[in-house]
Structures are given as C-alpha cells and as structure tokens.
Amino acid sequence: MVEYIAEISSNFVTNGKRSKDRAMKLIEAAANSGATTVKFQLLKAELLYRNPDTVKAVEKAELPEEWIPELIACAEENGVEFLCSPFYLDAVDLLEHHNVERYKVASWELTKVGEVNPLLVKIRDTDKPVLLSTGGAKFEEVDHAIEILRPGDEAPDDIVLMHCNPAYPTDAENAELRRILDLATEFYPLSVGYSCHVADPIVAASSVMYQSEVIEVHFDLDDRKGNEAIHSLTPARFAEMVRYGNMLQKAVTGKPNDFDVKFARKNYRRDPSDWLRGVK
Questions:
Q1: Which residues lie closer than 8 Å to 121 by C-beta, 6 or more apart?
Q2: In terms of Cα–Cα distance, which of 69, 63, 113 is closest to 85?
Q3: In whole angstroms, how far apart are CA 80 and each of 64, 75, 163?
Q4: Sequence-ordered list of residues with C-beta below 8 angstroms from that of 270, at least 6 positions apart, any chain
Q5: 147: closest CA among 96, 181, 187, 193?
C-alpha cells in the first residue's frame, strides 16, 4: 500500500497569525481525505537564517512547541500518524519525549561528502526510521547521509529516500519523476518515495508508476488561506490524488497470471489453416 502524507507545514498560519484550532482542523480534514500521516515542522528562524528580515518573516510560521501534545492527540483520535521534521537539535529531544514513531529529514540537511551534520547524528541516535528528502543532492551526498544515519549498514530497511524538487511550487515539467527510479536503482534495496511540490494530484499520484511507496504533498483547507496554499492540495484534490494513486498501484502491481487466465482463450485465436478466428 502507498502511504499518503499530508504536509501541513505552516498552513495553520493565516494572514501572519497562528491558529491551533486551524491546525486541528487540518489534521481532521487530512484524515478524512485519505491521508495516513500528517506532518509538521519544528523550526526556529533564528537558528536557520542569517538575514534579519528573513528571520522576522519566518518566525511567524514557527510551530509552537507547546502545541505538540495536542496535535499528537488529535492525530491519534483521527487515526493518522503524527510526523515531524526537526530543524534544530532540541526539537529531536522534544519529539523523543513525545515518542514519535520516526523522523522526516529535509533535503537541505544533506551536506557535502566529509561534512557531518549534527542533526543527522542526533536523529541517528534515536534509532528510529527516517524519511530522507534528497532534493538538490548528488548521489554521493545521499550516500553520505545514509552512512551518517546508518554507519556500516549497506542496506538499511528503515530509510525511505524521498525524491523532490526543492522549488516551491514546482511546475509539472520540472517534477523529474524518473529520478525516483534512479534513486531506486542506485540505492537498491532501499524504498523510495516522492515529496511533491506540484499542486496537482495527478503528478503526485503518477509517482507510483516509478516505484514510489510514499507520497507527500502539502495540504490546506478549502478556504486556501494557509501560509503555503500556493503549493498545497485542498481536501478534495488530496482525496483525488489518493484515488488515482491507489488505482495506478493496482495497475502496476496486478498478478502476472491474471492476463493469461482472463485473455488466453485459444478458441478466439486465428486458425493457421485458414487464418479465420476459430470461434465456436
């Protein structure tokens, strides 16, 4: 089965104001739209950016740490997993305190070969599964990140490599879905997925044709007033993506013998003696 992640990100922010009630509604709407997981981000602008103007702008989108217990409870009540991307070391400690199941690592945490990101080390030490975004990274940098997360393990079964184009939003022609296959081939037998920044359900769903086992898309309410609405799917569009994704998965994973059983009716083939169809 394909896993569908609703990336809520900072869509709980409207007109520069944060709303915990909106965050809860986003979780509920995502669950009702077919999401299996909802994802947030724990970041602190002052720890990410140097430019004071950027810090001031991004601060408005920070997820308050004190919301975490209620968001986790809301996710549990709606039957979906709470997932989060930590962007600072203490965020990992906080998420560990609340016993999250796994972690999502943003693509900008991947470094040049030889550099060791302390956040990856911190996540490694939790010994929990990881969804690793690979947008903009060279294969050797992806391999380096895997080595940091799972040193000495050539085929870790708890890391999913997520293809993405780090542009927000991404045009369909720049989705580069074939890179999912490239990741699957280069890093076999690791699982692969797609973090989609194209605001179209068909592009995201089509990734299953390239072996994607996890699909992540940004999610907003019908009012499209969230902070990242421009590259988000509404509930109806998300449900459409899930329907297409499930249908396409069936199309590519059907039993090989089904064709023979249903269509190899030899009495409908042409008879080589006169090349007429031998229908009885």
A1: 148
A2: 63
A3: 21, 5, 23
A4: 276, 277, 278
A5: 187
182, with CB counted inside 10 A (0-12, 13-18, 19+), is middle
Q: Are 42 and 95 spatial neighbours (Cβ–Cβ below 8 Å)?
A: yes
Q: If DSSP codes are grouped into helix, strand and coil, which group holds residue 89?
A: helix
Both structure tokens of 168:
């927000």
Q: Give the closest residue to 72 by CA, choosing from 61, 83, 64, 87.
A: 83
pLDDT tens sequence across 208-246: 999 999 999 999 999 999 999 999 999 999 999 999 999
φ and ψ of 142, to 5 deg: -65, -45
Measure the CA angle with vertex 208, ends 25 and 243; round to 5°: 45
Nearest Cα residue to 32 out of 217, 187, 236: 236
Other Cβ atoms less than 10 A from the Cβ of 50: the count is: 7
Alpha helices in 125-177 (DSSP H): 139-149
Phi-psi map region of 211: left, alpha, beta (phi>0 left; psi -120 to 50 alpha)? left
Residue 263 to residue 226: CA distance in whole angstroms:
50
Q: What are the helix (H) ranges across 33-117?
A: 45-48, 52-59, 68-77, 89-97
CA pseudo-torsion sign 163, 111, 99, 45: negative
Cβ atoms 192, 208 nearer than 8 A: no
173-194 pLDDT tens trace:
999 999 999 999 999 999 999 9
